[in-house]
Amino acid sequence: MTRLEQELGAELAQLEGDGLRRSLRVISGAHGARVDHCGRELIMMSSNNYLGLAADLRLRSAAIAATAGYGVGAGASRLIAGNLEPVHRLELQLAAFKRTEAALVFGSGYLANLGTITALAGPRDAIFSDELNHASLIDGCRLAKSSLNIYRHGDVPHLRSLLERTPSAGRRIIVTDSVFSMDGDFAPLREIAAVAQEFGAAVVIDEAHAVGVVGPRGAGLAAQLGLEQVIDVQIGTLSKAIGAYGAYVAGSKVLIDFLVNRARSFIYTTGLPPAIAAAAAAAVEIISMEPERIRRLWDNAGYLRTHLVAAGFQVGRSESPILPLMIGDACAAVAMATKLLDRGVFVTAIRPPTVAPGTARLRLTPTSEHSRADLDATVAALIAAGRELGLIA
Ligand SMILES: *Cc1c(COP(=O)(O)O)cnc(C)c1O
Question: Which of 81, 126, 262, 339 could be disulfide-bonded to 147 (CB atoms 3.0-4.6 Å)?
């Protein structure tokens, strides 16, 4: 073993001992309400495929048709090798969907957040960031080298006091998830927008778990609150409810033109494959045409939540289909996930550093495509496993 291997092996052993080691599990076949894992059919309760579109036949057909017409790869950065039509059309469609002047597609939500924040904020600027923001927003803030002010989760008075304390050297930017990815609660966007207006700050929101899930036509939390024209930058991913891959930034024409010129994670990376852009476009259309999917998603989430609470589980402050089943200890969360796997339910233990130490949880995400039988079987498995581990009476 080389020295490097020894050192890395020791770190992994430490993670293992702390219940924090992560590993990959192979899925065979399509991603749906049920998945095939090692020859067993499991109820999938850990994906963000909220509307069951990831394997929808219409998305597959759109991807196949785009591949037939345009090939597989985009060739190079869109600024260098040209902008493929399916991507261009998707951007027009996303701007209409979000009711903004323009939209720009990125390679992923991670890249969109990194590129947008670093384009908008530099060393002379100040960022105000919710303490529970997604890792990609946190990394964007770190990379921006701005003065970084972290406010307590959803705490607008705290945000306001930080804004008061930070003289406006340059630009001031408030950054927040709209639906928080690990707790499922909503950011107080209306109050944040009001404080931003008062201090002349810009607002960047990440609608990763809101698009296709929350608001009229699934257009997100800003749309639900009528804030589309007030929030400066709306970021969302194409990989969750939309079922494909990539991400978008929606906002004013000048914002989008600026990002094309300044967002390094847009400029210095290859464009999205045409198949993926076409699949995402098909999904956005389906979401508009089949609003019953969103209704089924919320019905399923409500049903699951009611039965989990009745069984004595704590589901935290979630207001969305993200149901965090709070456990606390990382090893206990892993033990619970293992027992669920044995009982036919695929749920992953969410542990530090994804969440704060001592707040490990199982994050359940029902989709519109789960049947009542799937949900009942999930609850039964959770109750049995929870009793075995002494988590519930
Ligand atoms: C998943 C997620 C992202 C990253 O999106 P990808 O397209 O998967 O890279 C960004 N922000 C939030 C809040 C997320 O949950």
Answer: 126
